[in-house]
Specification:
It is a single chain. By secondary structure, the chain is of the alpha/beta class. The chain has two domains: about 220 residues, P-loop containing nucleotide triphosphate hydrolases (Rossmann fold), CATH 3.40.50.300; about 70 residues, YebC, transcriptional regulation domain (Alpha-Beta Plaits, 2-Layer Sandwich), CATH 3.30.70.980. The chain is about 35% helix and about 30% strand. It has a six-stranded mixed sheet, with helices on both faces. A four-stranded antiparallel sheet has the order 2-1-4-5, with helices on one face. Helix 6 links the parallel strand 7 and strand 8. Helix 8 crosses helix 11. It is elongated, with a radius of gyration of 24 Å. The chain binds adenosine-5'-diphosphate and magnesium ion. Adenosine-5'-diphosphate binds next to strand 2 and helix 1.
């Protein structure tokens, strides 16, 4: 017998326009499978937060459809909110409550069974590393502590889908590590997770699959590894030369290089970035060929491509500027 599981999230031809003016989400379609961690990666203003607000039913689509666990969001708001754990980009905590009170309030709001509340809250405080601060006002917390509290608040009630919008925005390294580890734990528990980020390392560290968006549209999608292989290659070799008088065409015709970019620096040196599928072999060959052609290599280095290289190669600009 074949059991076909419905997608946890199904987004079809979704468009959202703010005030009849700003098209923040532009005909977006994608699915999220049960148990998958999907990362939505894109620069500021790409439309990530608007997309998750549409998923939460906070905003109503201008056109298109959003389904969670087979239910159309806009027609099942109460049910949908119960089923989703959400950490918004703006942490939205009450500064005059303690950590303990914050979680009690949320447990009440989301109908956590009375006899489970105490146990769950103390488990959440422990997960967030806040047990010894539980009776302190949120007002006295650092950015990282607030973010950790917001994270465990979102997982306090049992939900099928977790959505984290910029989970490590403005947090210190320790908090970030803690948050990442908690997200990995949730993945192991089989939860479905959607997160938005403009940090490439976060996307790389957590996502099973990535959707890169810009201007409200999908640019590409795949696993981090697939994206790099598809759009950049296995390696990037960076070559620094002085007084370079040729161009990309010459490099490709005469030296046989697959040039990714060529940047002329202020001091007269040129940085040539070359795509290579066999870096360790290509590197010595490249140096020899260049010097035989009268262009001595001043400096050379090799690295694996990053998601920023993928973004650059697809859009011509960097993810973060
Ligand atoms: N409340 C709003 N009113 C008008 N425009 C908005 C509002 N919120 C976001 N936008 C615009 O919509 C676009 C997408 O924003 P957003 O979804 O927040 O992107 P991201 O989360 O990827 O940074 C941006 O151009 C932003 O300026
Ligand atoms: Mg955002």
């Amino acid at each position: 017998m074949v059991i076909v599981l419905p997608f946890m999230v199904e987004i079809r031809d979704l468009t959202f326009v703010y005030d009849g003016q700003v098209k923040a989400v532009d005909n977006l379609s994608f699915n999220i499978e049960q148990g998958e961690i999907l990362g939505l990666l894109g620069p500021n203003g790409a439309g990530k937060s608007t997309t998750v607000k549409l998923l939460m039913g906070v905003l109503k689509p201008t056109s298109g459809s959003v389904k969670v666990a087979g239910l159309e969001v806009s027609e099942n708001l109460a049910e949908i909110r119960r089923r989703i754990g959400f950490m918004p980009q703006e942490t939205a905590l009450y500064h005059e409550l303690t950590a303990q009170e914050t979680l009690e309030y949320h447990a009440e709001l989301y109908g956590v069974p009375k006899n489970e509340i105490d146990e769950r809250i103390s488990r959440m405080l422990k997960l967030a590393g806040l047990t010894d601060r539980k009776d302190d006002l949120v007002r006295t917390f650092s950015g990282g502590m607030k973010r950790r509290l917001a994270l465990v608040r979102s997982i306090l009630h049992d939900s099928d889908l977790l959505i984290f919008d910029e989970m490590s925005l403005g947090v210190d390294v320790q908090s970030r590590n803690l948050i990442w580890n908690r997200v990995r734990d949730m993945k192991r528990e089989g939860r479905t997770i959607l997160f938005c980020t403009n940090y490439m390392d976060e996307a790389e560290a957590l996502a099973d699959r990535l959707i890169i968006i810009d201007h409200g549209r999908i640019i590409t999608e795949g696993t981090p590894r697939e994206l790099k292989q598809q759009h950049v290659g296995e390696y990037l070799i960076e070559v620094m030369v002085d007084d370079f008088e040729h161009d990309e065409f010459w490099l490709s015709q005469e030296i046989g290089l697959d040039v990714d970019s060529l940047v002329v620096g202020m001091t007269g040196s040129t940085l040539i970035t070359v795509k290579s599928d066999d870096g360790p072999k290509d590197l010595p060959r490249l140096i020899t060929a260049m010097s035989n052609a009268g262009v001595p290599v001043k400096q050379v280095s090799m690295r694996e491509p990053s998601l920023d290289d993928v973004f650059l190669s697809l859009t011509g600009s960097r993810l973060r500027d």
